Predict the structure.
Amino acid sequence: MKIGDIEFGSQPVFLAPMEDVTDIGFRLLCKRFGASMVYTEFVSAEALIRDVKTTQQKLVISDEERPVGIQIYGRDVDAMVEAAKIVEQAGPNLIDLNFGCPVKKVAGKGAGAGMLQNIPLMLEITRKVVDAVKLPVTVKTRLGWNQDQLIITDLAEQLQDCGIKALTIHGRTRAQMYTGEADWTLIGEVKRNPRITIPIIGNGDITSPEEAKRAFETYGVDAVMVGRATFGRPWIFKEIRDYLDHGTVDETFDFNQKLDVLEEQLRINVERIDELRGILHTRRHLAATPIFKAIPNFRQTRIAMLRTNKMDELLAILEDTRKLLG
């Protein structure tokens, strides 16, 4: 599977771009565990051209995480074109256009999945960005605005005609947000369309190695993208890769090794930002990780873990979980 000149091999598994999640530390962990491609947190085009410091920081990438994509969103043609040119200077392997984010502060203003209500503007932005940069340009979007507007089969052809090099489809509408089950049938329909020649990447409810394998075998996608299932579980890429390549998951990668990874993630975030914000940034992963589910009577420990603002205290609590499991 290729996007432009980027070779991925067979059945690649990508890390989805996610706000406040896919920072550089987390991306490097996911890459270590076998992610074929990682993406930055999505970047506001307007904030980028205004030179907002926190937005600029999202453009920092590392050679160790390549191939890496930077994703931008916005609703103004000129701003998106200018932002794409700025992003190109940061040196990613590709630029992704976010036409899929469903949250109100993005879609409600006409950007992200809001573009699904203004297809002519979406296509104009796509064409203009493709023409403005030399890097491969890709798109991530959804099935449509709601169940009455499932437009992805026609939209995929239109986006391909704009010159994009790959299309990621999340199997939900904007109205669904992240509720219900992802519907992969239309993703498969897009992939089977003989007029579609670009890679199709499927996204939505890939929470296990079995689901990843099913996506490839049932719907024929060229790659799968994993999002929320990576929270507190960057090793899911190892699990999926092992299952796809060897038909089994490495059971020797145990609780202690997984906890080591979460502690490393905490240290990375504290060093990268500061103690308080580094802890806050890690809490999402600690709250979501599945590794604590096997521990009985864990409620009070979980509360303490998610309340402390001191790194030493949090590390001590995490270390105590080893004894609790024992």
Summary: The mean pLDDT is 94. The longest strand covers residues 68-73. The chain has 14 helices and eleven strands. The CA atoms of residues 137 and 224 lie 18 Å apart.
